Amino acid sequence: MAKKQFKAESKRLLNLMINSIYTHREIFLRELISNASDAIDKIYYKALTDESIAFDRNEYYIKITPDQEKRTLIVSDTGIGMSKEELDDNLGVIAKSGSLTFKEENEVQDGFDIIGQFGVGFYSAFMVSDEVTVISKAFGSDEAYKWNSKGADGYKIEPWEKESCGTDIILKIKENSEDENYDQYLEEYRLKSIVKKYSDFIRYPIKMDLTGRRLKEGSEDEYEDYIEEQTINSMVPIWKKNKNEITPEDYESFYTEKHYGFDKPIKHIHISTEGAVSYNAILFIPEKTPYDFYTKEYEKGLELYSNGVLIMNKCADLLPDFFSFVKGMVDSEDLSLNISREMLQHDRQLKIIAKNIKNRIKTELTNILQEDRERYEEFYESFGRQLKYGIYEDYGMNKDILQDLLLFYSSKEQKMVTLDEYVSRMPEDQKYIYYAAGESIDRIDKMPQTELVTDKGYEILYFTDDVDEFAIRFLMSYKDKEFKSVSSGDLGIEPAADTDDSTDQEQDKELFEYMKNILAGKVKDVRASKRLKHHPVCLANEGELTIEMEKILNALPNDHKIKADKVLEINSSHEVFKSLQDAYENDKDKLNLYTNLLYNQALLIEGLTIDDPLEFTNNICSIMK
To answer: Are 139 and 43 in contact (CB under 8 A)?
Structure first.
């Protein structure tokens, strides 16, 4: 029989598709299985509309048969099959889909989805095959035909023998090359893993003859191999089952089987939505962070299925970055897919699903916070930083959805509290939400800058994450209460100046100006402190950039030293101040020594680096003589 030629545009598309459209070669098996499922669906649909056709589900299945010696892989189905004309029409013109034509001609109703709507999936077989043969017998026909092609050169169709209706696709697998191992597509374990990954929830059984090992009959130590036909797909996805039938253990098993994590999730979210966009989703909030979560290598996203077939392993567009820790899957029949079904065409449906998922995650986290505080704090210890990054990275755009999920350590409660809990306890005369930033709770407890706020009886939030202050800058306020650092130049609670001591204040002003000149370039100002009670000295900051921010930014790789505007504050009630006054009157060299010592002492309190440790050591030694 003469070879028939593909149309010119089809030949070009075949070359393009084999080399470009599909990212992973293993996708070919997903496409062939999806086509086989379509073929069975077509008989099922005919049975629904034609009372003379009986549909016994037990008679319909897909079978995968590898043969390593012949280097063949056969994908068979007991579906509707194809006539000679359909073989020529569907397989001779690339990108003409028999499934799509069937759907249009039979006016298939919504809710009955036929996957293969593009008509190119079959040709993905040429990515792994030198030759493809299709033997098919149409439903209700006495004749069978064989379609055969070795690629873009063309194809042949001839009469053939086949007992029952359905289709056998026979792939002649390529020999291995330097770049690709084709043997894997003949190995039982590899084929099974591909089916489990992409086609586990196809609604019909996918069968394989699998090799097992057992004790020989009558022997205690001698084993033998045996072959047993097994169904390797789950068929009914957990998300399509009745929620009342699913136990918490079922969800946990699904989490483990899908390799979402090695921990135990603290919450599962099962969503079934019908409407403008219908979809099912099962989401998990993990307990522990993956080892690479806070690295560039971490890849967020949910598994995306179209009618039970895996389309994308990680669809990043379904999750906002601040909820990137969520694991799970989404299955929808309403998504617009591209020609290879590997990627989504970004459309309105996807955005609707993503928005709904975001709101549902927020609701569930709020419920955990309110109903199981201990559990939420465990979650927050792992992922709280990511929520704060969400406020910072998006310049506060998401603060409304995230601010009530934040927790900070409280000086008064000595435990983690929400912003709402803090504000609800504020005295009427308190204007600001006060916070202190530092490396740890212990370090902040010892900060001299907290003395005035604590003495006033006000609660202080402890910021120990490097992102805390940056996030708060974009949050700006909560329930009309602005945030105020205890190191701020103006706390809003400083005592008023005593007008009776104007002469002393003028003399002190001259002293502080002299000290400021000694520290020229290091501090913006030197002044008497209104916040210190017991400590002799501290640093305050002026402007938007705080001292803690300076430390964090300078720890990052950069070519420029970043400096906050610092103010050296002296406790004028401390004995040290008398020594400064005496030195100013009688010994300027000693004042120079004292000033540098106090400045370096203030740096150490803040956890900042001293510019010249040797000079600092010598200065200490000099006052010990």
So the answer is: yes
Strand partners, 327: 284
Ramachandran sector of residue 139 (left: φ over 0; alpha: ψ -120 to 50; beta: rest): beta
CA distance 450 to 472: 19
Q: How far apart are CA 414 and CA 441, in angstroms?
A: 10
> For the chain, which residues make up each domain, given as ranges?
8-231, 238-376, 407-485, 499-623
What is the pTM for the complete model shown? Answer: 0.78
CATH class of 8-231: alpha beta
Give dist(CA 87, CA 105) in Å, integer.
Answer: 18
The angle at the Cα of 613, spanning 611 to 614, to the nearest 5 degrees, equals: 125
Contacts of 325 (CB under 8 A, 6+ apart): 285, 286, 289, 293, 382, 383, 386
**Look-up: residue for tokens 């409304």?**
400
**Fold observed for domain 407-485:** Rossmann fold (3.40.50)
Distance, CA of 197 to CA of 207 (rounded, Å) = 15
Q: What is the pLDDT, as a whole number, of residue 124?
A: 84
Distance CA 200, CA 254 (A): 12
Give residue 85's pLDDT: 92
Nearest to 405 by CA among 392, 395, 419: 419
d(C-alpha 501, C-alpha 429), whole Å: 28
Q: What angle do CA 198, 338, 135 make, to 5 degrees?
A: 60
Residue 18 confidence (pLDDT)? 61
Q: What is residue 22's predicted lDDT score, i.e. its pLDDT?
A: 63
The strand ranges marked E within 411-507 are 416-417, 433-437, 460-463, 477-478, 481-485
Place of tokens 């053939």: 160
- DSSP codes, 313-357: EEEGGGS-GGGTT-EEEEEES---B-TTSSSB---HHHHHHHHHH
The separation between the first and the last C-alpha atoms of the chain, rounded to the nearest angstrom, is 111
User: At 235, is the secondary structure helix, strand, or coil?
Assistant: coil
Q: Which CATH number fits domain 238-376: 3.40.50.620, 3.30.230.80, 1.20.272.10, 3.30.750.24?
A: 3.30.230.80
Q: Pseudo-torsion of CA 362, 364, 365, 371, nearest 10°?
A: 140
Splitting the chain (625 residues) into consecutive groups of 10 residues, what average pLDDT does each group show?
68 62 80 91 86 85 97 96 90 53 48 43 87 95 94 88 95 94 96 94 94 86 91 91 91 90 92 90 94 90 89 91 96 70 63 94 97 96 95 89 97 97 96 95 94 94 95 93 92 70 69 95 93 92 87 79 91 93 93 94 90 88 81
What is the pLDDT at residue 98?
A: 45
Q: Cα angle vertex 302, ends 377, 467, to 5°?
A: 40
The helix or strand, by DSSP H or E, that contains position 144, with its residue range, turns out to be strand 144-149
Using only C-alpha atoms, what is the Rg of the chain?
A: 36
For residue 346, the model assigns a pLDDT of: 52
Lookup result for tokens 């934040």: 406
Regarding beta strands 460-463 and 433-437, do their DSSP bridges make them parallel or antiparallel, or are they unpaired?
parallel
Yes or no: domain 499-623 corresponds to CATH 1.20.120.790: yes
